[in-house]
Amino acid sequence: MEIRHPSQLSPEILVGIVNEKLRLQCPDKASLLYELGMPEAELDAKLADFDYHPETNQYRSR
């Protein structure tokens, strides 16, 4: 799935897409950021209500 403008998506939609990419395509957050072409600070700001958990390789709500 290609995301053309991830910064324009709502956080609820984006977290679903991001978690699917992490589950199926990206082994870690660094590869996710590369895949999205999005700076880490921008993704973290967009997903401010979610925390990334490296042990499960997914974002979860706080």
Describe the structure.
With 62 residues, the protein is α+β, with helices and mostly antiparallel strands. It is 47% helix and 13% strand. The chain has one domain. The model has no long low-confidence stretch (mean pLDDT 94).
Brief account:
The chain contains three helices and two strands, in the order H-H-H-E-E. The mean pLDDT is 94. By secondary structure, the chain is of the alpha+beta class.
Reconstruct the topology from this structure:
Elements lengths: L10 H14 L4 H8 L3 H7 L3 E4 L4 E4 L1
Antiparallel strand pairs: 1-2
Any key phrases for this structure?
alpha+beta; 2 strands; 47% helix
Query: Percent of residues in helical segments?
Result: 40-55%
Number of strands: 2
- Rg is 10 Å
Helix and strand content put the structural class at alpha+beta
Element string (H = helix, E = strand) = HHHEE
Main beta sheet = 2 strands, antiparallel
Low-pLDDT segments: none
Q: How large a portion of the residues is in β-strands, by DSSP E? A: 5-15%
| Strand line-up in the sheet with most strands | 1-2
Calculate the terminal CA-CA distance, rounded to whole Å.
26 Å
Domain unit count: 1
The dominant shape is: globular
Would you tell me the overall average pLDDT?
A: 94
> How many helices in DSSP terms?
3
